[in-house]
Design brief:
The protein is built from three helices and three strands. By secondary structure, it is of the alpha+beta class. It has a three-stranded antiparallel β-sheet. The protein is globular.
Length: about 80
């Protein structure tokens, strides 16, 4: 599954994104991204985002989403 997500031959891929100023918690980011067609899946190697949605996102977060190319270009 990881190989498929990292491969560019599939429509949906994993991308790194920057933390947005308006996102205070992982829930803020998760909902905003979901509304834009992306799914927040990790902060660095931490895949437990769903278990810490109400925690504050650190300024140095390294967030990863799954989405298609069109969506990532709109997010960035």
């Amino acid at each position: 599954m990881y190989s498929e997500l990292m491969s560019t031959k599939y429509e949906e891929t994993m991308y790194e994104i920057s933390k947005q100023d308006e996102w205070r918690t992982y829930r803020d980011a998760f909902i905003d991204l979901l509304n834009n067609g992306a799914t927040l899946v990790a902060d660095r190697g931490d895949l437990n985002i769903n278990q810490k949605l109400d925690e504050r996102i650190p300024d140095d977060a390294q967030l990863f989403v799954i989405c298609d190319k069109e969506t990532i270009s709109q997010i960035n």
